């Protein structure tokens, strides 16, 4: 299976990118780089893709395992190399689960299944970055 996107220059530093879902997004540079700050930054968008991929896996597993979770979020901190071409060489993913009846063992299993089996974006990141994953549980 292949995905196809088309990214079209809209002038200055702004682009519109299609997506197989039918939802388009805008990419732009900040004012410091000649843009108008009207879109996502490409490297940060990669991190959103990573969080989204793992998040969809975990949300699906929460549903499948019938777990009681009020909400969860994924925070990612990534280190960008100094020299060009700059890329992420270290990525830390932190999963935060919130609720009063969290099954920590099953939630950790969901995170592990995403990280080790399902999340293709995470596997892509592992080709160029050291990825660490931590899980945190919060009572409301």
UniProtKB/TrEMBL annotation:
Tree of life domain: Bacteria
Residues making up the signal peptide according to the UniProt record: none
Pfam families named in the record: OsmC
UniProt name for this protein: Osmotically inducible protein OsmC
InterPro entries: KH_dom-like_a/b (IPR015946), OsmC/Ohr_fam (IPR003718), OsmC/Ohrsf (IPR036102)
